[in-house]
Description:
129 residues, alpha+beta, five-stranded antiparallel beta sheet, 3 helices, 5 strands, globular
Amino acid sequence: MNTIATPLVTLTVPADVRYFRSVRLAIGGLATMVGFDIEAIDDLRIGVDEVCAALAEAGNGEDLRIEILAAPGERLRVEGTVPSGDDQPDEDRFAFSRQILSVVSDSFGYETEGGQVCCWLERRLSGDA
């Protein structure tokens, strides 16, 4: 059992693809601290890009809030939230997101509840996504 508090990094970025690079950079650095190899880090970058894109598309245009839980030697979890928009999400678009996230993560989810959209992914160090 890990007795050290698991670090939580919170980023707030505009819902604009030009800013997603900063989230990918943060993921790369934190994934290295957890102990992931370069292939897993690339997968996580792809996954976080998909999380950000899904949130930006489903949100109301406000900033994305991205929380990254980095448990060294164990796992990395990324959870993003944004206030939901007026339009219903395009199911075909999210089917594609689910395909990508199923390949690059051990587990993932997407839900809309209480006026918020939440999209998350998790990858364990021992997992082979």
